[in-house]
Write a structure and sequence with these properties.
Layout (H helix, E strand, L loop, with lengths): L2 E6 L6 H13 L2 E7 L10 H12 L5 E6 L3 H7 L4 E6 L2 H18 L2 E6 L9 H9 L10 H14 L1
Parallel strand pairs: 1-2, 1-4, 2-3, 4-5
The structure holds 4'-phosphopantetheine.
Length: 160
């Protein structure tokens, strides 16, 4: 069985993330969307909220499951018999850091990283930008699945 992981912070997941997950789901028998917990990173949504949102929006793909992990991604891959890490590349600016992580992960355990070019429609898209625009009342409705947009709108209203 071929199994890949799409790791990330997903705070929150965007249409760009979903595009990569859906395309990966066509290539592998199983895709695990792993919400990586970084205690040093302040997030708008808790890890439980992020995994719940992801479960809702990935329910359309029967071979996709969602999980969370605190620790090294390579350890998650070893524990879950995952052969490949799938990452979206938006622009050349992503490449340097992603290459560094891919090479480090390969050095640690031999796990492969596959880069998938993002759909050009989403090449500018980042969770941090979406949160920033939405905080100041900008329209992000085309950038997020409706259920996540609703959660984001609610969370920002609670914070006001
Ligand atoms: O969505 P993000 O924040 O760009 O995702 C980055 C993430 C979570 C995939 C990356 O930081 C990661 O893999 N973190 C897990 C900890 C780890 O393995 N660090 C060493 C990377 S070489």
């Amino acid at each position: 069985m071929t199994r890949a992981v799409c790791p990330g912070s997903y705070d929150p997941a965007t249409n760009g993330h979903l595009d990569i997950i859906g395309r990966a789901a066509k290539l592998f028998d199983e895709v695990v969307v792993a919400v990586l917990i970084n205690k040093n990173k302040k997030t708008l949504f808790s890890v439980e909220e992020r995994t719940e949102m992801l479960r809702e929006v990935t329910a359309q793909w029967p071979n996709v499951r969602v999980d969370s992990w605190h620790g090294l991604l390579v350890d998650y891959c070893l524990e879950n018999d995952i052969q490949a890490i799938v990452k979206g590349l938006r622009a050349v600016s992503d490449y340097d850091y992603e290459l560094q992580m891919a090479q480090m992960n390969h050095q640690l355990t031999g796990v492969e990283t596959l880069f998938m070019p993002t759909n050009p429609v989403y090449s500018f898209l980042a969770s941090s930008l979406v949160k920033d625009v939405a905080t100041y009342g900008g329209d992000v409705s085309t950038l997020l699945p409706p259920s996540i947009l609703a959660r984001l709108t609610q969370r920002l209203a609670e914070r006001r």
